[in-house]
Design a protein that fits this description.
With 427 residues, this protein is α/β, with parallel strands linked by helices. It has 14 helices and 14 strands. Strand 9, helix 12 and strand 10 form a beta-alpha-beta unit. The radius of gyration is 23 Å and the shape is globular.
């Protein structure tokens, strides 16, 4: 019987699936600072849709069993007595695209106030190399009064959650692990090995693990920036980008990246972390920041293309009705964090258009709180001057575009999933 107790801090898209997985084998205390989130989880309701109610109810039923189970709380004192603390809080950027480590520091303070001697604190939040040991460890030491690598230890195991992906569940994604001493590294690795079916990769140091994570998404960002630039070039040549990529994709080693709006909490953020650290040590990361500039420009670009199409058909732009399909940062997922669709919406509104956002997955209240715009979960019964498919939700494939188009309406397909005969232009 396992007596290991794990405290998990941050119950979002990363933390909740991890807590649920560990709770099948260990006693887990799931902590989040949002009381509403805790109340919902205690009822088995996960607003992120990452963990089904049946699964949550099953682990919650075992709370009284000391061997395993999951207990949700927003009271930090409930975290006392844990052997491991796993921190999975967000690591966003500020309005200047600088790393905002505030959630990470506050989570470290929370853990430092409750952890006891010999505790191991594992970070999963994406950071640039050095944050765990140079920023988080001092906070842990100061708030706990304990000494690093003698009284307490740390590890780093970067998250690889893919929101909305039901095929790659957390236990089926290989995990990178690391620790502050060789012995602790092995212990951290063994902890994850006990629940991760896909296995683990033990990195040689915490900094190596941090660097591995931050370049995973930076690599994808750069590759998407390349095809986004190609899309702009081919548009000027009146060549269909999707058809070009389909043809080029017949070569065995061609990388299948597609153009699009690059948002979310990873690909659109992580490169800034790496770039910031590079600049701190005296190196200007040209390719990384060039990729970011291209991808950050795509919202305005899409809006300008829609407006040009409307102008070419002599559709008045002022007060034109435009339907934007999707506000989530990716398909079949309610996650709206750092969604670049808002850039399209804002640009269209600046042109004078009246924009309706329809997303069957997103929470309208959250959209209003985060972006200050109205979103609807039901498609309004009206016709539009312009239609922009921004997110590839499955539900959008069944929309009868003929019923919502006006005679001169334009249809712009960012994702390239609509029937070609219904689309005026795609990215």
């Amino acid at each position: 019987m396992s007596t290991t107790k794990i405290g998990l801090i941050g119950l979002g898209y990363v933390g909740l699936p991890l807590a649920n997985l560990f709770a099948k084998k260990y006693a887990v205390v799931g902590f989040d600072i949002k009381p509403d989130r805790i109340l919902a989880l205690k009822e088995g309701v996960d607003a992120t849709l990452e963990v089904e109610k049946k699964e949550l109810v099953n682990v919650l039923k075992k709370v009284d069993d000391q061997e395993n189970g999951l207990f949700f709380t927003d009271q930090s004192l409930d975290l006392k007595g844990c052997d491991y603390y796993i921190i999975t809080v967000p690591t966003p950027v500020d309005i200047n695209n600088q790393a905002d480590l505030t959630p990470l520091i506050k989570a470290s303070e929370t853990v430092g106030q409750v952890m006891q001697k010999d505790a191991i604190v594992i970070y999963e939040s994406t950071v640039y190399p050095g944050v765990t040991e140079d920023t988080c460890v001092p906070v842990l030491a100061k708030t706990s009064g304990l000494n690093y690598n003698s009284d307490f230890f740390v590890g780093y195991s970067p998250e690889r959650i893919n929101p909305g992906d039901k095929n790659r569940s957390i236990e089926n994604i290989l995990k990178i692990t690391s620790g502050s001493t060789p012995e602790i590294a092995k212990q951290v690795d063994q902890l994850y090995q006990s629940v991760i079916v896909a296995g683990t990769h033990l990195a040689t140091s915490i900094k190596v693990a941090e660097a591995a994570k931050v370049i995973e998404n930076s690599q994808r960002d750069i590759n998407i920036a390349f095809v986004n630039e190609l899309a702009k070039i081919f548009c000027l040549m009146n060549i269909n980008t999707q058809e070009v990529l389909a043809a080029a994709g017949t070569k065995w080693n061609f990388l299948p990246f597609k153009p699009g709006l690059v948002g979310g909490h990873c690909i659109g953020v992580d490169p800034y972390y790496l770039a910031q650290r590079a600049q701190q040590i005296g190196y200007y990361p040209g390719i990384i920041l060039a990729g970011r500039r291209i991808n950050d420009s795509m919202g305005d670009y899409v809006a300008s293309q829609v407006i040009k199409l409307m102008v070419s058909r002599k559709v008045p732009i002022e007060n034109a009705s435009i339907l934007v399909l999707g506000i989530a940062f990716k398909e079949n997922c309610p996650d709206i964090r750092n969604s670049k669709v808002i850039d399209v919406v804002s640009a269209l509104q600046e042109y004078g258009a009246r924009v309706t956002v329809f997303d069957p997955w997103a929470d309208p209240k959250e959209v209003d709180q985060v972006y200050g715009i109205e979103a609807v979960n039901q498609l309004p019964n009206k016709k539009y001057d312009g239609i922009v498919l921004a997110v590839a939700h499955d539900e959008f494939l069944s929309i009868n575009l003929k019923e919502i188009k006006k005679e001169l309406s334009v249809v712009y397909d960012v994702k390239g999933i609509l029937p070609k005969e219904m689309v005026d232009k795609s990215l």
